[in-house]
Design brief:
The chain folds into 2 domains: about 1-60; about 70-270, Glycoside hydrolase/deacetylase (TIM Barrel), CATH 3.20.20. It is about 45% helix and about 10% strand. The chain contains 7 helices and 9 strands. The chain has helices at about 1-55, 100-110, 130-140, 160-175, 195-200, 220-230, 245-260; strands at about 70-75, 80, 90-95, 115-120, 145, 185, 205, 240-245, 265. The strands form 2 sheets. Strands 3, 4, 5, 6, 7, 8 and 9 form a 7-stranded parallel beta sheet that branches. It is globular and about 45 Å long. InterPro entries: Glyco_hydro/deAcase_b/a-brl (IPR011330), NODB_dom (IPR002509), Polysacc_deacetylase_ArnD (IPR050248). Pfam families: Polysacc_deac_1. This is Polysaccharide deacetylase.
């Protein structure tokens, strides 16, 4: 009887142990399955978050910054290569813009695949229509320069007035085209020590010219100005050509570009000029 009881207990104990092992294995299997599912969920969330981040924060194209290849030589105000850039270039500049013919001149330049700096006077951007003309010229790809608010001789003004002539125009141009001018040309080519400092503080390149003629009465017709701009003895590598927003110059501009190219010159892209570094 005692042996029978002992055998029964042994059977029950073994059955209990067997059941416990199966339960532990099942629990471990269930636990592994839960962990795997949680990992899948976390990976899925990570993929979704990455996709959302990519969609919400697209990578913007970084504009190409051109290395300067030319500098202004202040001894003669022409341009010269910094290293091995081609020497047979000339710089086209147009003052007193945008008066009445700036758009026509910009369109001619586009047709001829040539660039020029348009130097702006503040009294030519008083109206909304004039502001739109300036914006259109800039949108066509032409750089904008500062030629002061009122085209007054700077050495006749107080320092405060000189600063106002320069900085106020920079502010107005920036409001119209979204950026401040990088180039400055004083009225009549006459600067003061103070105006030069203001120009430097504004991170602009000081500029005058090599030659120009269209304000002289004898060249106030298309044929005469086209001829002298191409055939003057002052034309050479790096010449900085001064023209104005005038009817006769606008009419002659295409001939001037063609004539310069026939003589072996190319029109310089102003973005290749070395300009002052913007201060942080």
């Amino acid at each position: 009887m005692r042996k029978l009881l002992t055998s029964l207990c042994t059977v029950i104990l073994l059955a209990g142990c067997g059941t416990g092992t199966a339960t532990m294995e099942n629990e471990k299997s269930n636990e592994d399955e839960v962990v795997a599912r949680e990992n899948e969920v976390q990976e899925s969330k990570a993929e979704v978050n990455e996709a959302e981040l990519t969609e919400e924060q697209p990578v913007e194209d970084v504009p190409e910054v051109l290395e300067p290849q030319y500098r202004i030589n202040e001894n003669h105000w022409g341009v010269e290569p910094i290293e091995n850039a081609p020497e047979n270039v000339v710089l086209l500049t147009i003052d007193d813009a945008p008066d009445k013919h700036a758009i026509q001149m910009a369109e001619t330049l586009k047709e001829k695949d040539a660039l020029a700096i348009f130097f702006v006077n503040g009294h030519f951007i008083d109206t909304d229509e004039e502001k739109q003309v300036l914006k259109q010229i800039h949108d066509m790809g032409f750089p904008i320069g500062n030629h002061t608010m009122s085209h007054t001789k700077l050495t006749d003004l107080t320092e405060e007035q000189q600063k106002d002539e320069i900085v106020k125009l920079n502010d107005e141009i920036e409001a119209i085209i979204g950026e401040r001018p990088r180039y400055f040309r004083a009225p009549f080519g006459i600067n003061s020590d103070y105006s030069k400092q203001v120009v430097a503080d504004e991170n602009m390149l000081l500029m005058n010219w090599s030659y120009g003629y269209d304000w002289n009465k004898e060249y106030m017709n298309a044929e005469a100005i086209a001829n002298i701009m191409v055939n003057t003895e002052l034309l050479r590598n790096g010449s900085n050509l001064l023209m104005h927003d005038r009817e006769w110059t606008a009419a002659a501009l295409g001939q001037i570009i063609d004539g310069l190219r026939e003589k072996g010159y190319e029109m310089l892209d102003p973005s290749l000029l070395k300009t002052p570094q913007i201060k942080e």
